Amino acid sequence: MAQKRRSNSINYTTDQFTIAKEDLTFEKAVELFIRDVKLKNRADATVTFYKNELKGFKRTLKEMNLPIEPAKVTPFMIEEFAFHMMEEGSKAGAVNARLRAVRALFNFLFKKRLIPENPVADLKLLKNIKGDIIPFSKDQLQRLFNQADRRTFTGLRNYVMMMVMLDTGVRVKELCQIDMVDVLWDDNSIVIRHPKNGYVRRVPISEETIKALEQYVNHRGQNIGNNALFVTLDDKRISKRQVQNFLSQYGKGASITDVRCSPHTFRHTFAKMALQGGANMFELQQILGHSSLEMVRVYVHLFSNEIGRSHRGFSPVKQLK
């Protein structure tokens, strides 16, 4: 019986072995990408640029508690990443530089069929991406708040946390770091002692939020061996990941699909509603904890139509009639 001949063709994969799309790590993806850049004889400065920018991209995704596996990265995550950089005070040029590196990486991975879809296929640099900030509508907010079962400790806690986010626009890390002593009950305000830019600030809160906090603290208890304001059932400080998880679950339960249900969206929503209510740029900068006015100007530009409609309601000249 004649022996079957082997095929004479050799199928080479990107790294001499097959990498399952779901198993490709970020580190391996960058390694393959950098090797490809070097094979194209690009300048050493270009290689260094890609390495540094992609290292920064990975670090920021981790800070935001987002997955870093290339196959799990989505277009919306990359937009959120860009907004995060802006809110932390990065200039447009720095954000765009990092986006260019990210775009080059994922274009390479998709071309080599190492990821199922290309999250940067429609990526726009900062000049155009600003228009994609989408806040919650009032109806969506109501549906989110309705998801919290206030008959349970976690439901009440989550409800109050959403109130604080909507009322102050605090970052999720700042929210989780609030201690009991940071709530100034007689002043209707909260002290943010662990801000990203290092400057302690005080943010005002409404009477409604104060009352909700009082109700929550009554159930939380005063002496539980933890200074954290918002705690888990085990009396441990709640984490950013836990906040993001319950918001994601609430979003699914409320059938909200066209807006990402995240702490950052609460921050955008606060900015929009504050501007509609007559807050000026400097007040908004102080409350949000921005080191510069750049991100505040983005909000003013983005929500200018809504601000104009609000002005027609509180115009001083109109009140003279």
From TrEMBL:
Q: Pfam families given for it?
A: Phage_int_SAM_1, Phage_integrase
Which residues are in the Tyr recombinase domain? 131-312
GO molecular function terms listed in the Swiss-Prot or TrEMBL record: DNA binding
UniProt keyword annotation of Cell inner membrane present: no
Query: Which keywords does this chain's UniProt record carry?
Result: DNA integration, DNA recombination, DNA-binding
Q: Name one process (GO BP) from the record.
A: DNA integration
Which residue ranges does the record assign to the Core-binding (CB) domain? 24-110
Family matches, as PROSITE patterns: CB (PS51900), TYR_RECOMBINASE (PS51898)
Record protein name field: Phage-related integrase/recombinase
> Which species is this UniProt entry from?
Shouchella clausii (strain KSM-K16)
Species lineage, top-down? Bacteria, Bacillati, Bacillota, Bacilli, Bacillales
